[in-house]
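Exercise 7. Given the encoded structure of a 248-residue chain, write a plausible sequence.
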């Protein structure tokens, strides 16, 4: 079974130097939950030099910043001040609470930023907050790169939830979904840019597709970038995250 979410169904937000398309992964499922298992939501954001998002709180969310282009300056209540780039990625385990701000100072960075900010539901509430940074390695064309996942997955960034997050750049190639890590997996695929042919449908930038009980799917890209979420159907998680809760 597969379910398609179209780019036109995303919610829009932002103003001034930044704009956001909010992806609601469970929008077209029959469930009352707008999230999809432990994937709460994510934002496809475009920020221009001079953009500033002031200090604001998060609680009980696992927040992955997956940069695609540009450099963004991160500051948080743990005292960290670090530049986030397409290779130096960031994960905030908000737990019992954390504050952060993001900016693109015009006197330091001149390139627009494209990123996904991904809100995952943790297994437990009110864990101690922490902020992680990791070199996720270079993207190799037509190979899945594991960016973040639960502790035993050996992902560079650890999410306190049963989920694996991959990305890939396809160059007119065919690939399968990542080899299942979980015994009973479900997949959510997002087309960050370009176009994608699957066994069933053609998808364009901003579209997404859910694969339920399907792991032998063939993906054919036309120079596209994909994000893949593999989740454990049987995982437990909280729906009380500040941003990831997402009930109808």
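Solution.
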């Amino acid at each position: 079974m597969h379910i398609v979410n179209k780019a036109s169904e995303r919610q829009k937000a932002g103003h001034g130097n930044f704009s956001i398309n909010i992806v609601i992964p469970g929008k077209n499922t029959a469930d009352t939950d707008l999230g999809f298992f432990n994937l709460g939501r994510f934002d496809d954001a475009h920020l221009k030099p001079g953009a500033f998002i002031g200090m604001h709180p998060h609680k009980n969310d696992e927040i992955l910043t997956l940069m695609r282009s540009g450099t963004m300056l991160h500051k948080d209540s743990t005292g960290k001040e670090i530049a986030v780039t397409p290779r130096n990625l960031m994960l905030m385990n908000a737990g019992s609470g954390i504050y952060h701000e993001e900016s693109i100072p015009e006197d330091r960075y001149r390139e627009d930023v494209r990123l996904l900010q991904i809100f995952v539901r943790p297994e437990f509430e009110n864990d101690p907050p922490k902020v992680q940074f990791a070199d996720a390695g270079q993207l190799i064309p037509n190979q899945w790169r594991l960016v973040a996942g639960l502790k035993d997955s050996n992902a560079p960034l650890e999410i306190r939830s049963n989920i694996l997050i991959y990305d890939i750049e396809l160059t007119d190639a065919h690939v399968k979904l990542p080899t299942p890590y979980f015994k009973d997996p479900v997949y959510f695929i997002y087309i960050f840019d370009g176009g994608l042919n699957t066994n069933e449908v053609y998808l364009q930038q901003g579209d997404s597709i859910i694969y339920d009980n399907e792991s032998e799917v063939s993906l054919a890209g036309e120079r596209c970038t994909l994000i893949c979420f593999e989740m454990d159907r049987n995982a437990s998680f909280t729906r009380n995250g500040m941003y990831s809760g997402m009930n109808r």
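Remark. The first strand starts at residue 2 and ends at 5. Students should compare their own answers with the one above.
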